[in-house]
């Protein structure tokens, strides 16, 4: 009984810590988004609230809470309230299965996993919750009783469904490499520098593109495209309900960064792990691993912002074209090539270096294949988009 | 029918494969923005840092005194007539005996008011003035006001202080 | 056991609300919630894979499309016309027949005295076991289903494809 309660308390603390980190990162993402936007444009950014403006998120929160909470007259009231709640809910649920770190020894032989819950369908859970994320937008957009909101919501729905396919196919390659759906097993298979990015460069590019689309981030932020749709699905929202939508977007960014780190960048693995274990003990090493994963996730948040302030928005038909005729065929090619990466070294007893070589050889093969398709299909019909 | 023979027919070429893959171009663009990330910001933080606005900037109005300290304004009203925004109003008064050191001419402005909400800082008053009495300072702006009571500037704010005289480069 | 009752009650209520609510959007949202409850039942049966697939496929994709279409059509405007007496009568006849068939079919079922503990395996619903079962014992049906999906996909592409010279937008 004693053991159960220790683990239970530790788990509760862990969940609280992850929750706090997620919310804190999301709050400060809004600040860093503005700061980075300023840096990319040779400006200074918010620097008035506190030293370097670090109290800006607090000021924003106060502003959000103080604003009038407006519900349009002909809206469907309960669904209008439900929308942002669903967005926030689904955004927060994903991090349950992400292994943020290895086991921690709590003393008395009690081992504790730095992971919310290790289910054997881990990555499917992430995938399922991501696919649910669109409900918040859809419900909120419809309940607003506004054409622009509805158009934004519908765009979000079709975009998410389209990019889920390519995302699922790129995850399948990862599953083939690991042979397990459990996120923990995926991370453990990548320990000691065998990061999946080395074996799955094409898969990673596909995944990050799909992650951009699923998070509704630029260049795929068509659901909230100001020039066409005023504010998109959150046109009618104000006060903290709007705040929830915006907050959910930043949480999604952080969580998808953590998922990318887990799937492709070795999770909590970092170089010189053995040295740290030998000189400081396993607990310290694993806590550094926890920090390494957070660091990797934050790096991806930076990439999200970097891309946002670099690329212009897609046109809607280009977006759909890219998803269906560009990414999905490439993802299917990647699945087949992954089979080659697994089978050839197993057949001829090659080293892991050889499989990295095969993986990288996949890129020129893909480009040549695209070129051949391009010259055949492009000759007949000028307007066929290849990877548009 | 062409008006000139300089019309150019723009032909958009079909994108090559390398352009259609887009990723190289995206990487190039991201490198460009990353370069800017590490550059020094060009911002001038205004209330703390002020830039020199030039010798012809039209800022705060000033009613000049002459070298003896007498007000130059004779309340002729030409500035008020010239003002396109009708921001200037004044009340004239005859100079009494013993006030020669205070006012240069026989008539002076007892009240001289500029409504700063109306003023557009065009400088026409400065040009209209025959006595070279009113100028718009190049080195000082009208301060921000928070109250309606503060927007009408009277003589207390407009007349030049003798210990803080306003001189332009050309006058020296 | 307590939780099972709660979940079942929730499932039934939300399933009833699908039929009873007047607004089609509400119906669809209740249906989504019903799928969640069914996923909860899968978890209680230790079939996590089915639960995830149920959420991804039904709640995450198919119901989104349902919602999508209903939002686009705006059914509220057309609803009075669709409820003539004839439709009501036809609906009652069809529904009543189905009810009779279901009752007749389930009446004879012997619910048994409980699971056989010797044959019980808690790991049946796990991904590995399910995969082995599908790809060994039921390979032919599985492949046939995939062909069915493939045909459906080709059909969807053919329907969605633009004819030469036609512009739809």
UniProtKB/TrEMBL annotation, chain A:
InterPro entries associated with the record: NADH_UbQ_OxRdtase_su1/FPO, NADH_UbQ_OxRdtase_su1_CS
Annotated keywords: Cell membrane, Membrane, NAD, Oxidoreductase, Quinone, Translocase, Transmembrane, Transmembrane helix, Ubiquinone
EC number: 7.1.1.-
TM region(s), chain numbering: 12-31, 78-101, 121-144, 165-187, 193-213, 244-267, 287-307, 319-344, 350-373
Primary location: membrane
Cell compartment(s), UniProt: Cell membrane; Membrane
Taxonomic superkingdom: Bacteria
Reactions catalysed according to its record: a quinone + NADH + 5 H(+)(in) = a quinol + NAD(+) + 4 H(+)(out)
GO molecular function, one term: NADH dehydrogenase (quinone) (non-electrogenic) activity
Membrane disposition: Multi-pass membrane protein
Family membership: Belongs to the complex I subunit 1 family.
NCBIfam families per record: PRK06076.1-2
Function field: NDH-1 shuttles electrons from NADH, via FMN and iron-sulfur (Fe-S) centers, to quinones in the respiratory chain. The immediate electron acceptor for the enzyme in this species is believed to be ubiquinone. Couples the redox reaction to proton translocation (for every two electrons transferred, four hydrogen ions are translocated across the cytoplasmic membrane), and thus conserves the redox energy in a proton gradient. This subunit may bind ubiquinone.
Oligomeric form and interacting partners: NDH-1 is composed of 14 different subunits. Subunits NuoA, H, J, K, L, M, N constitute the membrane sector of the complex.
Protein name: NADH-quinone oxidoreductase subunit H
Species this chain originates from: Flectobacillus roseus
From TrEMBL, chain B:
Membrane topology: Peripheral membrane protein
Residues that coordinate or bind [4Fe-4S] cluster 1: 73, 76, 79, 129
Record's protein name: NADH-quinone oxidoreductase subunit I
Main location: membrane
Biological classification of the source: Bacteria, Pseudomonadati, Bacteroidota, Cytophagia, Cytophagales
Entry's EC annotation: 7.1.1.-
Required cofactor(s): [4Fe-4S] cluster
Catalytic activity entry: a quinone + NADH + 5 H(+)(in) = a quinol + NAD(+) + 4 H(+)(out)
SUPFAM superfamilies per record: 4Fe-4S ferredoxins
Source organism of this protein record: Flectobacillus roseus
UniProtKB/TrEMBL annotation, chain C:
Subcellular location: Cell membrane
Regions annotated as coiled coil: none
Subcellular location, principal: membrane
EC number(s) given by UniProt: 7.1.1.-
Membrane topology category: Multi-pass membrane protein
Catalytic activity: a quinone + NADH + 5 H(+)(in) = a quinol + NAD(+) + 4 H(+)(out)
Transmembrane segments: 6-21, 28-45, 51-73, 85-105, 138-159
Top EC category: translocase
Protein name: NADH-quinone oxidoreductase subunit J
Organism per entry: Flectobacillus roseus
């Amino acid at each position: 009984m004693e053991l159960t309660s220790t683990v239970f308390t530790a788990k509760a603390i862990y969940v609280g810590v992850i929750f706090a980190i997620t919310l804190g990162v999301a709050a400060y993402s809004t600040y860093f988004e503005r700061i980075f936007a300023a840096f990319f444009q040779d400006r200074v950014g918010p620097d008035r609230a506190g030293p370097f403006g670090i109290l800006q998120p607090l000021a924003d929160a106060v502003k959000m809470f103080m604003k009038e909470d407006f519900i349009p007259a002909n809206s469907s009231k309960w669904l209008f309230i439900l929308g942002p709640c669903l967005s926030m809910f689904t955004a927060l649920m994903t991090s349950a299965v992400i292994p943020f770190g290895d086991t921690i020894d709590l003393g008395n032989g009690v081992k504790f996993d730095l992971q919310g819950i290790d289910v054997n369908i881990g990555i499917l859970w992430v995938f399922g919750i991501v696919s649910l994320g669109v409900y918040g937008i859809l419900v909120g957009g419809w309940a607003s009783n506004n054409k622009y909101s509805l158009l934004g919501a519908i765009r979000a729905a079709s975009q998410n469904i389209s990019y889920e396919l390519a995302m699922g196919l790129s995850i399948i390659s990862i599953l083939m490499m690991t042979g397990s759906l459990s996120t923990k097993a995926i991370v453990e298979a990548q320990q000691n520098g065998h990061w999946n990015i080395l074996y799955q460069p094409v898969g990673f590019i596909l995944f990050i593109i799909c992650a951009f689309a699923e998070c509704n981030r630029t260049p795929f932020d068509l659901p909230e495209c100001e020039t066409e749709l005023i504010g998109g699905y959150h046109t009618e929202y104000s006060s903290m309900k709007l705040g929830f939508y915006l907050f959910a977007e930043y949480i999604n960014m952080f969580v998808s960064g953590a998922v990318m780190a887990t799937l492709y960048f070795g999770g909590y693995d970092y170089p010189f792990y053995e040295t740290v274990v030998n000189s400081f003990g396993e607990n310290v090493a694993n806590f550094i691993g926890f920090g390494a994963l957070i660091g990797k996730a934050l790096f991806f948040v930076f990439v999200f912002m970097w891309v946002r302030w670099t690329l212009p928005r897609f046109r809607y038909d280009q977006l759909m074209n890219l998803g269906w005729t560009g990414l999905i065929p490439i993802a299917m090619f990647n699945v087949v090539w992954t089979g080659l990466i697994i089978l050839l070294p197993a057949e001829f007893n090659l080293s892991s270096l050889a499989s990295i070589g095969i993986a990288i050889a996949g890129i020129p093969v893909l480009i040549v294949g695209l070129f051949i398709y391009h010259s055949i299909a492009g000759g007949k019909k000028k307007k066929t988009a290849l990877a548009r | 029918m062409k008006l000139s023979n300089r019309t150019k027919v723009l032909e958009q070429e079909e994108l090559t494969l390398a352009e259609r893959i887009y990723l190289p171009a995206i990487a190039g663009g991201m490198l460009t923005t990353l370069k800017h990330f590490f550059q020094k910001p060009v911002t001038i933080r205004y209330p703390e840092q002020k830039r020199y606005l030039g010798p012809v900037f039209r800022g705060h109005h000033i009613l000049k005194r002459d070298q003896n300290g007498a007000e130059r304004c004779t309340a002729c009203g030409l500035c008020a007539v010239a003002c396109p925004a009708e921001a200037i109003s004044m009340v004239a008064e005859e100079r009494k005996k013993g006030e020669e050191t205070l006012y240069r001419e026989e008539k002076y402005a007892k009240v001289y008011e500029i409504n700063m909400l109306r003023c557009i800082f065009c400088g026409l008053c400065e040009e209209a003035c025959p006595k070279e009495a009113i100028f718009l300072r190049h080195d000082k702006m009208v301060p921000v006001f928070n109250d309606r009571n503060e927007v009408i500037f009277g003589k207390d704010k407009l007349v030049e202080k003798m210990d803080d005289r306003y001189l332009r480069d050309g006058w020296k | 056991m307590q939780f099972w009752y709660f979940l079942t009650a929730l499932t039934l209520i939300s399933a009833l609300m699908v039929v009873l609510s007047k607004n089609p959007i509400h119906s669809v949202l209740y249906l989504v919630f019903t799928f969640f409850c069914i996923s909860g039942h899968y978890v209680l049966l230790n079939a996590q894979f089915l639960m995830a697939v149920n959420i991804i496929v039904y709640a995450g994709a198919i119901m989104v499309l349902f919602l999508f279409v209903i939002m686009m059509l705006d059914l509220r405007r057309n609803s009075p016309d669709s409820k003539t007496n004839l439709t009501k009568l036809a609906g009652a006849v069809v529904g009543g027949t189905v009810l009779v068939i279901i009752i007749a079919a389930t009446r004879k079922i012997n619910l048994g005295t409980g699971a056989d503990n010797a044959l019980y395996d808690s790991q049946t619903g796990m991904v590995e076991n399910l995969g082995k079962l599908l790809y060994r014992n039921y390979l032919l049906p599985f492949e046939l289903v995939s062909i069915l999906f493939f045909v459906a996909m080709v059909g969807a592409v053919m329907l969605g494809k633009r004819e030469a010279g036609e512009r739809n937008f």
